[in-house]
Amino acid sequence: MLNELFTTRREKRLWVLVLIVVLGIYATLAFTPRLVEGITDQQAAVVFLFSMFLIAVMVLFQGLRKKRGGLEIGVILGVVAVTPWYSFGWALQSEPT
């Protein structure tokens, strides 16, 4: 019966992987309150910055796979230049008094 749901072996394998990922996400939700209690703001900031660094590295390597034109390179450099200014300005912004 399960074999009738999938058209190829690859599709079946991909759906099984999706199911495993979804189950893994829901399985970790039960532990979230206990994990959050033990994490300080500084540790959360380090994890966040490390995650953002890994995402930036992944985007960089994926972006280098394709040949880009002059306009695309200009837009990419503009985004790369403005993003840190925006992020740091937002993070350092103080509460209005």
Brief sketch in words of this structure:
This protein is an all-alpha fold. The protein has a domain at about 1-40.
Largest sheet: none
- The helicity comes to over 70%
Give the ordered list of helices and strands.
Answer: HHHHH
- Look at the structure and give the mean pLDDT: 79
Q: How many helices?
A: 5
Low-confidence stretches: none
- Whole-number radius of gyration? 21 Å
Tertiary shape: flat
Write down how many β-strands occur, each being a DSSP E stretch of 2 or more residues.
0
What percentage of amino acids are in beta strands? Answer: under 5%
Which secondary-structure class do the elements indicate? mainly alpha
- Straight-line N-to-C gap: 66 Å
Task: List strands and helices in order, with pairings.
Blueprint (H helix, E strand, L loop, with lengths): L1 H4 L3 H21 L2 H6 L3 H23 L6 H23 L5
Can you put this structure into words, describing what you see?
This protein has 97 residues and is mainly α. The chain has a domain at 1-38. The protein contains five helices and no strands. The longest helix is centred in the middle third of the chain and has 23 residues, at 41-63. The radius of gyration is 21 Å and the shape is flat. The N and C termini lie far apart (66 Å).
